[in-house]
Amino acid sequence: xxxxxxxxNLVGAVTGEGDAHPSIxxxxxxxxxxxxxxxxxxxxxLLFQIRLLGDTGFRPxxxxxxxCGDGHGQxxxxxxxxxxxxxxxxxxxxxDRDRCLPMSAGSLAFLQQVLRWAxxxxxxxxxxxxxxxxxxxxxxxxxxxxxxxxxxxxxxxxLPVTL
Length: 163
What we know:
- The chain is built from seven helices and three strands; from the N terminus they run H-H-H-E-E-H-E-H-H-H.
- It has a three-stranded antiparallel sheet.
- Helix 3 crosses helix 7 and helix 5 crosses helix 7.
- Helices cover 52% and strands 5% of the residues.
- It is globular.
- The protein has a domain of 107 residues: de novo design (two linked rop proteins).
- The protein is mostly helical.
- It starts with a helix and ends in a 16-residue tail after the last helix.
């Protein structure tokens, strides 16, 4: 339920109230069906977020530097800048070191696959360990930049309640 709520919250945060978005609705519906079929809920929510960001014009930049646009030279430093909206070159990463998040080659390849593959095929992807933690950190930070707020985590219903 918490992953479904996360998905719905993101849709609400990136769309205007009352605006018709049939493709976004279809993306949400597909994501909810995947959740219902028993796939890893947190991974499903993560994949959904990446796809939805791409579908709404906030596709994370992975082909060239999201800051300066350089596609050659010291390209893609293994740093993701949520403020810039994607991977940055070594030069830009050094200028904004405090705001960049590490992204390994495996995480970059996974992110690119999610953005390229058809939604039905994305459910075959699996992410664990370092790849999953890097993607979760990058997507969470980027969603905060895009929406201007922190959304409840995908597992917020399983967190301990403190009074």
